[in-house]
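Dear support,

Our group has been running a series of protein-ligand predictions, and this particular one with guanosine-5'-monophosphate is the one our PI (initials K.S.) wants archived with full inputs and outputs. We had some confusion internally about which version of the output was final, so please treat the block below as the authoritative record. The input we submitted was:
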Amino acid sequence: MKKGLLIVLSGPSGAGKGTLLAEVRKNGFDFALSISVTTRQPRNGEVDGVNYFFKTKAEVEAMIAKGELLESEEVFGEIYGTSQKFVEAKLDEGKDVVLEIDTKGALKVKEKMPSAIMIFIVPKDLETLHSRLVGRGTETAEKIALRFGKAKEEIARSVKYDYILINDKIEDCAEQFVEIINSEKLKVAREENQQLIESFK
Ligand code: 5GP
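Confirmed final output from the archive:
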């Protein structure tokens, strides 16, 4: 069976990662979204097992010690991590898997799984980024300043990614996202395409 594609999506807070994935799904592109574990507290409306698996620090540390996480990172003083089992099971089922994670964790994933497709999304300019960070209204001024600093760091690391999406219109980004995935599936170097070529010999 064809293995799914591993897609890593990063971008600064407020770039529109969540909106992009919702739009992509609305357009009929099916994928499994990896649900990370985190030690941070749920925000209003967030549900355990849907947005994240909310865990204690001790629980996450135990998962790291047992090698259950594909990667983990401290972001804003909280630990976030990706379940290796979830990702591998879905890829084996032939499902494309999307990881929505920070750039440091993302680059660790790329090292472990070099076939991962790395996509970075940015707002169209700095002003838009700033107004989106403030506009969300869920964080204190201090936290917004922290996120803004982190956003600039994240954007600097985007040079290591394969693709950049500029979120001027989310509908256009969603279309481009699907175009990237479809083109990646046609690459000669992909394992299943190599197998096909071999079968003609
Ligand atoms: P938030 O607390 O706003 O949901 O997420 C904060 C940051 O953590 C975002 O940049 C998000 O992409 C990142 N993040 C979420 N899950 C993971 C994960 O499993 N691993 C890593 N490295 N970063 C994550």
